[in-house]
Amino acid sequence: MITSGGPSLAIAALDDAGLARARDVSSALSLPLLHEPAIPRHETDYALLLLVTDQGLGLQVTGRKAPGPVRCEFVRGKAGYRRDHGGGTGQLVAKAVGLKKTRRTLHVLDATAGLGEDAYVLAGLGCRLTLMERSPIVRALLEDGLGRAAEDPGAGPVVARMTVRPGDSIRWLEEQHEPVADVIYLDPMFPETGKAAKAKKEMALFRELVGNDDDAPALLAAALDVARYRVVVKRPRLAPPIDGPVPDLQLTGKSSRFDVYTHQKLPEGPAE
Questions:
Q1: Does the model's pTM come out above 0.85?
Q2: Nearest CA-CA partner of 71 in 83, 59, 54, 53
Q3: I need a labelling partner for 17 at 20 to 30 A (CA). Which of 42, 231, 236, 271 fits?
Q4: What is the Cα–Cα distance from 7 to 76, expressed in whole angstroms?
Q5: Residues within the annotated binding site for S-adenosyl-L-methionine?
Q6: Which residues of 153-181 are buried (b: 16+ CB within 10 A; e: fewer)?
Q7: What is the mean pLDDT of residues 76-104?
Q8: What's the CATH number of domain 77-262, 3.40.50.12280, 3.40.50.150, 3.40.250.10, 1.25.40.10?
């Protein structure tokens, strides 16, 4: 996490055009601002830079031979392809949420939203999404990606069904006393085991930025208390379930698994 003992982070405007926005981001996140056109990313005292460019916000590891910045992208790349060619309700995440069992528009709370990849898939299949991400840096990337996607003819109607809610999801869920969503979706950061292949750069960056989600059992418990129909937890394929109740159903793919905890049967027809 970004603390006195963790990686340091600054906002970096790489040109004059982005300086005004960089100042706004710096103020909103209470982080220092660097402004040097084409700043050498290996010659800075900061471990991470949140870059402000004409392509949007990007989180960049510093140092020589560091990979390029991570951005939230819904228009091009994997997200755009998956939107157009992803397999509809036959996708494993769609089955886990229950889209094969109901014609109702489900409200899904993604309580560990990250960069919103799975949320975007579900929104593309007609769900209404509320996204919570407790890291303000990751949330800034997410909101930036949603803002850019809103202007795209293909992605705009999808992200219109996605709303970001600030705050820590565990604390917020524990304060609720009635169902907050039809389905609550969780994808907590799994502790490193040393056995997995080299993590993709997004996961490695997020692990450096926010650490592991060691409070995942508390998150699951809070979600189970206020989900109307089910809670869905995404896990690495061979990982044990989160400590707590035994899942009612497990759906396993090539690299991931979905643990499903059900409260009641999903309604088959549309809402009356």
A1: yes
A2: 59
A3: 42
A4: 30
A5: 133-134, 187
A6: eebeebbebbebbeeebbebbbeeeeebb
A7: 84
A8: 3.40.50.150
